[in-house]
Amino acid sequence: MGEYPNYPDYNGCPDYHDHHGHDHHDHHYDHCNYDMIEAEMMSMYDSLCQEITQHVRMVCDRYDDPWRCPCPTREMIERWCDEVMCSWSPSWYSADAETQQFGRRPLRSLVLALLIFELLRRRRRIYR
Q1: Would you say residue 105 lies in a domain?
Q2: Rounded distance between C-alpha atoms, residue 37 and residue 96, angstroms
Q3: Nearest CA-CA partner of 119 in 87, 82, 73, 86
Q4: Is 64 inside any structural domain?
Q5: Beta-carbon contacts of residue 52 (< 8 Å; ≥ 6 apart)
Q6: CB 85 within 8 A of CB 111
Q7: N or C: which end of the chain has fewer CB within 10 A?
Q8: Mean pLDDT of 38-45
């Protein structure tokens, strides 16, 4: 059997040490569960991600069925992404201007990432 790689300890990481150190214990996390952790971490999204996520969830509620289709095809996800882009599409957004300015569409990439994250989130409890 092979050896495990040497993972760095977190003693040198001030964020980890300060948050999980032995010097103080945060009782807020004593009885946390996945839903609480997810809600707190999702609240860290900036306002744009939160806005897009609302549309992502609406599209997933409409089309996604993790029991019947555990792994949607790329084509399905692309169609759902198109629908999110159409339903969200704020007044300031222009796909043409974005493509001209950046050479590709980073907001579409963000929507795809949020969509895939949501699909995985919905499957986490079913398939674990």
Answers
A1: yes
A2: 38
A3: 73
A4: yes
A5: 84, 88, 110, 111, 114
A6: yes
A7: N
A8: 86
For the chain, what is the domain count? 1
Q: Report the largest interatomic distance among the alpha carbons of the chain, rounded to a whole angstrom.
A: 58
Residue ranges of alpha helices (H) inside 23-105 are 34-42, 47-63, 74-88, 95-102
- Tokens 């599409």 belong to residue: 89
pLDDT digits (tens, 9 = 90+) for 93-124: 666 766 666 656 788 899 999 999 999 999 98
The domain in which residue 41 lies consists of 34-127
Under a CB-based contact definition with an 8 Å cutoff, are residues 92 and 48 in contact?
no
Token pair for 128: 């674990």
CB 45 within 8 A of CB 24: no
Whether 20 maps to a domain, the answer reads no
54-101 pLDDT, tens digit each: 999 999 999 999 999 999 999 999 999 999 988 887 666 666 766 666
